[in-house]
């Protein structure tokens, strides 16, 4: 029951353009034909081949025997990562746009994609490719597949859905983004489905709006998660998955982050308020920020747990 609509200021601060700018300042990026290569050190690069595909399937359910080998160029057997964006995997009628997400078409498409990529494999345990991330918003579907040999190097996969359809927010149009880290390099792919007809300027504005509202959790550089991963000070402690917006630093009685105003020093929002737990018999049910309290420059955080306790007989008098 966490907040699903972070403040607009958050999207302004964490928009992909600004994040990319920070990465450009922090890391020497390769360019041109080496744009997909990861810079491990100043003198070493690792080369990967990334296949990107898009297909508007017009709301048609794929047949069980659909052969995707030609589209995916599986005969080449030379790609390390596949990123595929589909549009209209369900008809864009009122039931599908306003009702719960129909996940069965996405499941079927993923099954067909997996079959095509692993057709040459002798068994399921020796599959060449596995799905590392997938996300659906109404009819937009993005799925990422990588060679199994890369699974240990591919981390922090996350997705974001931005509706730009009816009322500027519903998911009949919009964008679904998937990002991941490969070694130390961040990749982000955005699959957009924009309105047809009309003014091209409106589509350009929708595309810019989708990018400006695309945000991801900043987990790979989170100090607490890094310490939990290393053990040491927090050995044995656990934390629920952080999906809520940053809790610090806000202007008092406002939803604006400090640094939003031009006259203020720029600073990144932070997740300073956390709840850790350890012990047997505990299962975390909720972990969320409470954004309605604005009296402080921090936002409160809450967690709910199920606890299993030993029941001891009461001593008789």
Automatic annotation (TrEMBL):
<feature type="domain" description="Inositol polyphosphate-related phosphatase">
    <location>
        <begin position="46"/>
        <end position="313"/>
    </location>
</feature>
<dbReference type="Pfam" id="PF22669">
    <property type="entry name" value="Exo_endo_phos2"/>
</dbReference>
<dbReference type="GO" id="GO:0004439">
    <property type="term" value="F:phosphatidylinositol-4,5-bisphosphate 5-phosphatase activity"/>
</dbReference>
<dbReference type="InterPro" id="IPR036691">
    <property type="entry name" value="Endo/exonu/phosph_ase_sf"/>
</dbReference>
<protein>
    <recommendedName>
        <fullName>Inositol polyphosphate-related phosphatase domain-containing protein</fullName>
    </recommendedName>
</protein>
<dbReference type="GO" id="GO:0034485">
    <property type="term" value="F:phosphatidylinositol-3,4,5-trisphosphate 5-phosphatase activity"/>
</dbReference>
<dbReference type="GO" id="GO:0004445">
    <property type="term" value="F:inositol-polyphosphate 5-phosphatase activity"/>
</dbReference>
<dbReference type="InterPro" id="IPR000300">
    <property type="entry name" value="IPPc"/>
</dbReference>
<keyword id="KW-0378">Hydrolase</keyword>
<dbReference type="GO" id="GO:0046856">
    <property type="term" value="P:phosphatidylinositol dephosphorylation"/>
</dbReference>
<dbReference type="InterPro" id="IPR045849">
    <property type="entry name" value="IP5P_plant"/>
</dbReference>
<comment type="similarity">
    <text>Belongs to the inositol polyphosphate 5-phosphatase family.</text>
</comment>
């Amino acid at each position: 029951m966490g907040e699903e609509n972070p403040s607009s200021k958050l999207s302004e601060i964490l928009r992909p353009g600004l994040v990319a700018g920070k990465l450009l300042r922090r890391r020497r990026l390769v360019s041109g034909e080496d744009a997909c290569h990861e810079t491990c050190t100043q003198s070493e690069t690792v080369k990967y081949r990334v296949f990107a595909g898009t297909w508007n399937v017009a709301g048609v359910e794929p047949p069980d025997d659909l052969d995707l080998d030609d589209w995916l160029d599986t005969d080449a057997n030379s790609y390390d990562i596949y990123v595929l964006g589909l549009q209209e995997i369900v008809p864009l009628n009122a039931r599908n746009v306003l009702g719960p997400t129909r996940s069965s078409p996405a499941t079927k498409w993923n099954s067909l994609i997996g079959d095509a990529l692993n057709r040459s494999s002798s068994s399921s345990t020796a599959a060449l490719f596995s799905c590392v991330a997938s996300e659906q918003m109404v009819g937009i579907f993005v799925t990422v597949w990588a060679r199994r040999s890369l699974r240990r190097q591919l981390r922090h996969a996350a997705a974001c859905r931005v509706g730009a359809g009816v009322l500027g927010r519903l998911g009949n149009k919009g964008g679904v983004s998937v990002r991941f880290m490969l070694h130390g390099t961040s990749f982000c792919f955005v699959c957009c489905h924009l309105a047809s007809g009309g003014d091209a300027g409106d589509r350009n504005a929708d595309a810019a709006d989708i990018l400006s509202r695309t945000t991801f959790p900043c987990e790979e550089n989170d100090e607490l998660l890094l310490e939990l991963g290393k053990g040491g000070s927090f050995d044995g402690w656990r934390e629920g998955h952080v999906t809520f917006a940053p809790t610090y630093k806000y202007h008092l009685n406002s939803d604006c982050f400090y640094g939003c105003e031009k006259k203020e020093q720029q600073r990144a929002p932070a997740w300073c308020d956390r709840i850790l737990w350890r012990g047997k018999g505990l299962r975390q049910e909720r972990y969320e920020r409470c954004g309605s309290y604005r009296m402080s420059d921090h936002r409160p955080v809450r967690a709910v747990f199920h606890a299993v306790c030993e029941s001891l007989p009461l001593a008789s008098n």
